[in-house]
Structure formats: structure tokens, C-alpha cells
Amino acid sequence: MSTMPTPEDLQRFLDVATEAAMAGGAVLQKYWGNLSSIQEKGRSGDLVTAADRDSEVEELAVLKRHFPAHAILAGESGQLGQLDSPLLWAVDPLDGTTNYAHQYPLCAVSIGLLVAGVPTVGVVYNPILQDLYRAAKGLGATHNRQPIQISATTKLSDSLLVTGFAYDRRETIDNNYAEFCHLTHLTQGVRRGGSAAIDLAHVASGCLDGYWERGLSPWDLAAGVVLVEEAGGQISAYDGSPFDIYSGRLVATNGTLHQPIIQELGQIKPLPQFGPM
Ligand code: IPD
Ligand code: CA
Q1: In this structure, which ligand is nearest to the CA of 214?
Q2: Does CATH place domain 156-274 in 1.10.1740.10?
Q3: Dihedral of the alpha carbons of 98, 100, 104, 106, in degrees to the nearest 10
Q4: Which ligand is nearest to the CA of 219?
Q5: What's domain 7-147's architecture?
Q6: Given this model, what pLDDT does residue 50 score?
Q7: Mean pLDDT by 10 residues, the chain (277 residues)
Q8: Crossing angle of helices 177-186/258-265, nearest 10°?
Q9: Per-residue pLDDT at 171
């Protein structure tokens, strides 16, 4: 295959990503409410469970069976192959581990494919609520096989946004608390969903108008950004410059609200102190 996949190639990647997400999702369904041990990965609050590990084993088995030559970057296994490989899968076996551990049903398998570094195929599957989001460049975005598109909201004051807080939030002043307060005042609300992949899927399907977050990993984002772009939305860095998946931060919106949100994020003053005021 040449570097640029054909629409047929993309459809096949999408179908294999869906097969992998369903296989991983079955593991998450099995462990739901039955976790015997929950551990921290190192940083306080960064949890890992048998569900994360076993879900990833199933997803990687499907991807490797269909595409043995492709590189993989996965939440639990790390890097398998070269990051600059022309075809790199970014796999989060359980995005929203904290939610999952508490049986709060916002969690997902997230599987994205970067083609020459560009997020090109994405599947986000919530096996608890049985929500399947799929997209590939030029093929559109769907939720449970029905086409989706971004919201039509035009004013920040009418918008509902979502964000999240990285695991280093207790150690850094750049912890998103100031941004959260600022945008909460200007909008109809800012939600904290607890799964970056689902936050992006919700922007793509139009029930949320925009999302921003820092401190993320490529596997949190690779699938969701394809959903947003294919649903008609816009993705960028905080300052409006092109999105870099390895920077860990992004703004994702319905397009109309992109500049207003970028402008507000540019005005944030750091908080005077950490922790409770
Ligand atoms: C986390 C979720 C959460 C975000 C964190 C991520 P995980 O992923 O996406 O919404 O705020 O920064 O690390 O740890 O549940 O896979
Ligand atoms: Ca994640």
C-alpha cells in the first residue's frame, strides 16, 4: 500500500478498529462491578486495573492479527514499533479508568490510527452504555451507525463545554482550575466527563459545543479528534496553531466557537496558590 490509504483501505482500518474495540469492550463488560484490585500507576489518582490490562491484550491481538507490520502505541504496553511509522495505532484500552472503577458509566475503548502522524481513523466504544462512535477521514462520523455532526451553537453564552484535569494537577500551577472557573462564568456550564475520548465524541455528536484539556496522552486523543473533524468540527492547540498529538493539549469545538474559546484561554491568569483556597 502507498503512504496515502485509499477509501477502501480506510474502511478496512475502520472495521478492524471496530472489531478490536468490541473485543476490548467485552472485557470491560466482564469486569464491570467485579474488580478485585485497583492499583495506582505511580502518580496519585492514576489508576490501573485488570480490566485495562486484559482489554488491551484483546485489542492488540486483533490489530496484530490483521496488520502485523503496523506500529502500536498503547496505554498499558507503551510503544511497539517506531513512532514515526507511517501507520501507527494509538490504543487506550480503558479511557476513564477512575469512572470505571467507581462504576460511573462514562468510559471507553479508544482506538485511533495515525497515518504519517495524522489522526485518520477513530473508534470510541463505551461498552457499558453500548455507544459506538466511528470516523475515518473523508468517510464521515457516526454514532451507533447513524451520521453525526457538531452543534449549531453560535454564542459562548449559550454553550455547554467539557474539560478534564490531568493526574499532575496537584503538583503544577498549570492545572486547568483557572480555565475551568473562567469558562464556567461565560457559558451555560463546563462538564467534567472523566474520559477524554467520550468528551471528544460528545463534541462530535453535538451534545457539547467544545472541549479543552492539557496533560493528555496520544492514545486519549487519536480517535476522538477524527470524530470531531469528520463531524464538521475544529481542532487546534490552545493558541489556535495546528494540533500536535504529542503536546497533550488541545481545543476541540464546533468551529463557530473556536476563536471565542481560544481568545478566552489566552487570557487566563495563573492561580495565586495550589489546592483549596
Ligand atoms: C484520563 C481521562 C480523563 C482525563 C485524564 C486522562 P485514563 O484517561 O481521559 O478524562 O482528564 O487526563 O488521563 O487515565 O482514564 O485512561
Ligand atoms: Ca486515557
Answers
A1: 1
A2: no
A3: 90
A4: 2
A5: 2-Layer Sandwich (3.30)
A6: 87
A7: 82 98 97 81 71 94 98 95 94 96 97 98 98 98 98 98 92 90 97 98 98 98 98 98 97 98 94 66
A8: 130
A9: 82
State if residue 165 touches ligand 1 by the CB under 6 angstroms criterion: yes
Ligand 1, pocket-test mutation among 91, 95, 198, most atoms within 8 A of CB:
95
What is the location of CATH 3.30.540.10 in the chain? 7-147
Inter-residue contact 89 to 65 (CB < 8 Å) = no
Q: Write out the residue limits of the CATH 3.40.190.80 domain(s) in the chain.
A: 156-274
Between the CA of 186 and the centroid of ligand 1 the distance, in Å, is 25
User: Which residues lie closer than 8 Å to 14 by C-beta, 6 or more apart?
Assistant: 121, 123, 134, 135, 136, 139
Q: Check residue 4 and give its pLDDT.
A: 86
Say what the pLDDT of residue 156 is.
98
Cβ–ligand 1 contact at 195 (below 6 Å): yes
Element (H, E) at 18: helix 7-31
Q: How much is the pLDDT for 245?
A: 97
